[in-house]
Amino acid sequence: MTQNKDFTRNEDLSGTYDVVVVGGGAAGLSAALVLGRSRLRALVVDAGEPRNAPSDHMQGYLTRDGMSPAEFLALGREEVARYGVELVHDRAVDVSRDEDFAVRLAGGRTVRARRLIVTTGLRDELPDVPGVAERYGRDVLHCPFCHGWEVRDERFGVLATSPLSVHQALMVSSWSADVTLFLHTVAERELSDDDLRRLAAAGVEVVPGEVAALRVEDDRLTGVRLADGTAHERTVVFVAPKAVPQTGLMERLGAELRETPFGAYPVVDPTGRTSVPGVWTAGNAMGFAEQVVHAASGGYRAAAAVVGDLIMSSLDAAVAQ
Question: Residue limits of the FAD/NAD(P)-binding domain (predicted)?
Fold first, then answer.
């Protein structure tokens, strides 16, 4: 496995950590910062696959608006390392529990921890339309709050993959008056009367028929081509990826999950505590709509709860003796 130069590797990875954080995105690094400042021995295990990697910039994070995701994470690693937090570029492939948690890494090592914070995020499955994956994060987008300002007033297309795409088309109409909803795999009869009235009120054109491909010229999106051969000029296309939560570790531990329209996520309390004693989660591992700023906040909140839990657990053990 190739090691990212921004990671520090502990070649021993021996003994038991107070906390192992699985996932080194905004949530995981924010949690690690709190843990390090709380004088706990902490390890971050990161496979280096952040959800926002296709984007050149992130938006809406106060004081970090416009920063590249890669730069944000690099600075975060530097900050947590200053407090003695260890970081390893590896993947957690299994977990079990006896007195402590045992986390097995793809590289062959097993690390142990008194508590776990799982911030493994989710994976986006894009519609299987030629051009979508290649342009994703550039002029094929999914979130108007992340990218709407940068593409404001351009010619928007929305590629429908379910009736929920109507909501996306209505939302993006706030950033452009020129929006076309391509029904693609959605039949017109699946749209409710309220959907049609709202689309009309927003000035959104509805085009039935399957989308065959996106048109790209000189490395720029120029339009959408339907299966019947007709073409529509568009410079931006919004899609709704299928969210695939990365909950494998929590499922192995028996965490309770809740079904949502965007996948199954662990049941948590306000601090991110799961139904498994000693396991917390944050970021997109606990919900589809967590932006970077939310993930960082959730990681902080989870770590603070873990610190308090460890302190009280130690005090209770001392009292019992």
Answer: 17-297
